What we know:
It contains eleven helices and nine strands.
Amino acid sequence: METDALWSAANAASHIAVPGNGDDKYSRGVLGVITGSAQYPGAAVLGVEAALRTGVGMVRYVGPERAQDLILQRRPEAVMTAGRVQAWLIGSGMDFANREAAAEHRFVEALRQTVPVVLDGGALDLATRAPGPVVVTPHYRELGRLLGEPVESIAADPRKWAIEAAQRLGITVLIKGHTTYVTDGTVTVAVAAAPAWLATAGAGDALGGILGAFVATHSDKVLADPGLLVGLAATASFVHGTAAQRASVGGPFTILDLCANVSAVIAELAVAKGIIADPA
């Protein structure tokens, strides 16, 4: 197996955008979210929670009513009406084999907009339908299903198959695992910031929210250069894993614990980059 560059804090810091005095909620990025289902409404809550803590200007959630209610109870600043977005996060908490009929209509409406798209879970099949740049975030089983390959083959060499998927589909791929690989088929990086305790339900939902926020914040740059998705996806994985380490302190934790640490991780990266002063 080839050795890829390991994504570092310095690499991640170079992809952090801090708002200036002239920014507003729109210039900071608006993330549209179509996640969750009647079966898994909590996935939508976790993704929105993570996105808001990552620094996006606004989250517009378009999904099942049950999930809307739960999100508003947790995060009343989330917006539940359609409108302008600068990126979409689609698919977390959906069952590909039993996708709700309403979800397809929402997908069609979302994909009318040429903006970057983050695809997870039950929406990976949209990878070739989106008109703008695409990054997908599968685990081994999901990538196997997307490519029609045995999961054992994917697990044996996730790096190889991530590159294969990126080249075959013309997208950016982040394949989740103890070591995460991100590739656009040309550039491949590895991220190894996460503790083993992160292998728990909801972890991918939070990662999707973090990545969606970064992509929305950098939307214009991604449209101009889709290759930027590799760095943004690797940075999302780095922040996700580092926040998990903070939440864990050597033991188990919940995904909301992880989300609670995201803002501090981003602040430290911004300090390292010299964008903001060290509060200490």
